[in-house]
Structures are given as C-alpha cells and as structure tokens.
Task: structure prediction
Amino acid sequence: MADSVAHRANIIEPPPGMVEKRGSGLWLTHLFMIIGVLIIFFPIWLAFVASTITQPEITSPPMPLLPGDQFFENYKRALFSGVNVPVATMLFNSLVMALGIAIGKIAISLLSAFAIVYFRFPGRNTFFWMIFITLMLPVEVRIVPTYEVVAGFGMLNSYSGLIFPLIASATATFLFRQFFMTIPDELAEAARVDGARPMRFFIDIVVPMSRTNIAALFVILFIYGWNQYLWPLLITTDPEMNTIVMGIKQMFPSGDDTADWPVIMATSILAMIPPVLVVISMQKLFIRGLVDSEK
Result:
C-alpha cells in the first residue's frame, strides 16, 4: 500500500526542474505583459499629466511627468466652457448616440435572428443572406443616399438622425442566429406544448439564454457608436449636437492660432471614461460571451 501511494505521488508531482522552468516562464510572461501595459499606458499618463498643468508647462520642454495643481481648473473649463461647446454637452450627445445604437442594434438583431431561426416562411434563407451581404456595404458606400433619406425625414441635427441609420447590424444578426441554432428544439416544442406563444418563448427563454452574447455585443457596439465621427460630422451643423469625437477634432486650431492643450487633454481623458466604465462593469459577461464554448 505504502509503495503504491509513493509511486502515485511520484507520478503526480512533477520533477523540481520542471517546476523551476514553469516558474521562470511564468515570470517572463508576466514581465512582458507588464512592459506591454506600461508602453500602452504611458501616452495616456502623459495626456492626464498635460490636463493638470498650465499651457506654458506643456509648450516649454521638458514636460513634467507628474500631475500638476491645475486639475480642477482645467477640467472645470473643459466641462462647462470648452473651446466651442462645453464638453459636458458633447459627452451627453455621444452617450445618447452610443446607447441608442447599441440597444437598437441588439433589439433588431435579436428579433430578426429569432424570426429567421424559429419561423418557417418561404425564402427565409434568402432574406438572411441578403442581410449578411450588407456587410460588404460600409457606411461610407451608402452615406449619400442615407443622408438624403435622413434629410427628407427632417432628422438633421437630431438624435434620431444620429441613431436610426446606424441601428441595423448584419454582424449581430449573424451571431445571434448562430447561437439560436444551438438551442435544443425540445425547448421550443416544450414551450409550444405548454401553450406559450412565440414572443413568450422569446422573452422568457431565448433572451435570458442570450445574456452573455448580448453583454459582449453591447460592449462592442457601444464603443462603435461612441467612436463614430463621419456620420455625426455629416448630419450635424448645430454645434450643440456635436459629439465628443467631433469636439476633440474641432478643438485643434487652424492657421496660427494656439491650441489650448490643457483643455484638449482634459477632454481626451473625459472621452475615454464612459467606454472604460462600460468595459469594466460588463467585463465578466463580456469575456464569457466571447469564450464560452457553447456559444
């Protein structure tokens, strides 16, 4: 008995050399990861430092590497004064646009994928491939006819004009369709036997099972909507409807004017906060939605 236990222990426990190699490899991996994070984070740190010091300190090299004493003053000027429009207004516009695009894309994609998978009607595969082919038509290709439609409906300089043309998503429809096809048919049959109508089955069973997929797509689509530049630039002429990405570009002066770098850097830092908060708050669901083998 003792010999067999000892033999089993020798099999389970790796030799000391193997432990040391694994340990050194682990340390090396962590070292490279830390170096990579520092390289990526350093420009963000410089932007934060620049947002807390004065204009002469930025324009007179070398620039300090530690935060200054102008943090509250610079961020107050950015939020409530800005250069053309207060940053608080542009942040609100971007937030409304990003939320509207993310929620709209997910809602439409869920319903369209549900209809394609669970409803039997002639040409459903044809309709699906017609939706899928639109992936080949980016916004830049269809931007002129889309603008004409939006202008015809009187949606220029409005939140509806910013959101509605961008809420259809072939990618999200495809991903939800692939996931719905993995749901056992027995669930649909059981719901039908219990007297549940299609929308009851959709709300009570399909949507809760799609929670991780919805979370992963919400993060991606929110960032997509937040970073939009070309479409808002085209349909908004009122400065009060500027988004934060447009605002940062418009803060850079033309000609011989001097840029207000502390305010520009403060605006850049503020523009990063909402997407970062969304990623952090939905991190677990986001990762599960991307790596779950069943999805």
In short: The first helix runs from residue 2 to 12. The chain has two domains: 2-78, 83-291. Confidence is low (pLDDT under 50) at residues 5-9. The two ends are 46 Å apart (CA to CA).
